[in-house]
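Appendix B.2, paired examples.
Example (i):
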Amino acid sequence: MAESNPTHPAGIDRDAIRAAARNLEDGPVTEGYKGDREAVVKMLNDALATELVCVMRYKRHYYTVSGLQNGPIKAEFLEHANQEQEHADSLAERIVQLNGQPDFNPATLLARSHAEYDASEDVQAMIRANLIAERVAIESYRQMIEQIGDTDPTTRHLLISIMAVEEEHADDMRDLLE
């Protein structure tokens, strides 16, 4: 007797699983993907721009802060720059997984970034600029996570993990403020 219900007793849709075996050029994006892929890719490209600006800001602060007493702050700036680069790499990778193109165009980076670049020379001004940028990033990621909802669990998980690190960065910068 033929099975009349394409859904497995455990609630798995067999037709959707079979459909996933087609359209191999779409890579990990199956027909069951529920997100607005173009909107998610744009959102991720804006987040990528933000992370790249943050890398450059932290690197500038790392190289320009001076004084023996600022050694721990200098080390913190470098650690954060490296973590922001990891975020940028993860975002670019996810964009490619969604069949998008990561946008590294330096000519439009600042316009697409949620955070600002900073050329402060005073260490406390640097810390303050970084704290502001971290808070901006946290709010940006919170809004992205809310917009994505349950439509793209992989992207949602990525954004949540990045936001957690940004919260740690904000806490670090707040602790360094005098």
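Example (ii):
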Amino acid sequence: MTEPFEQAVQRHGETVLRVCRAVLGPGPDAEDAWSETFLAALRSWPELAEDTNVEAWLVRVAHRKAIDVTRVRTRRAIPTDQLPERPSRETVEGGDEQGVWAAVAALPERQRLALAYHHLGGLPHAETAQLIGGTPASVRRAAADGMKTLRRVYGAQGDAADREPAQQEQVRCEPTHRESTPRTTDGEPR
């Protein structure tokens, strides 16, 4: 690879961090996966082919590193004292990134991964399907369902802030499912 490694880190670092956060949630685990991704990439950089899609390659490496972090989580002792979450350096002033990340974290795993790899990582549905399994059509559906749920949930949270406390309702993320039983025009099963 003739492109300097530092330029690749600057160009694709934010994308890799977004993917790590989507898979692991915000916090030190995502930052660790980001660091591990670029350490592994640095080792492989000299042998990387010229025609490699660097961003897609880095997203795949990040996916594998995130899986490694989730495996380590199951073996790690759970701390008793909770430290306050540090604000991200990547926040937009006036934005609600923590609310968005919480809504993304509440999605079913398949929808969350499809969103992370396609919308945040920029991978086509076919490559996302190779990473998480299934067909490109099923991954497209999972990403669409996830976006629909986020729009509904995040929009409802914004609307709830404008209502009186007595009128506020609890918002839950639930996967959307279509009925598979054919129905007649009056709603009865066939």
